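Could you help me review a protein record that somebody else here produced? My question to you is simply how this chain folds and whether the tokens agree. Thanks in advance; the entry in question is below:
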Amino acid sequence: MTSKPSLDAEAAAELHNRVATEIVTQILNETRTAGGTHSDLLVICESVLVGVVVECFRLGHDCKVIDLIFTAAKARLAKVRLEDLEARGRGEQSTFRNRNDRALERRTTFRSLKR
């Protein structure tokens, strides 16, 4: 994977969004068609995560990678969930949102953990 030149930020975002959309659509459609449940979806997600971590990262970095993935995922979920909320109160941005935005800015890349 690392032998090709790196993608620029715009090309990387396009690739990530396109591939993730395809994968999520396939997982959801096939699970629904087979009569699967939310539990089945979670097991599939776990299997995909384990497969990617085993394939891409050397032994010993598993916990670091999983922590990074879930920290980033939690921050992205919070941001997505908060985007659609109507602001209420005294016009101040919530402390939670400020912490979340700072976490996204400090996001660590996985390049240093690769083989």
Notes: Confidence is low (pLDDT under 50) at residues 103-115. The chain has four helices and no strands.
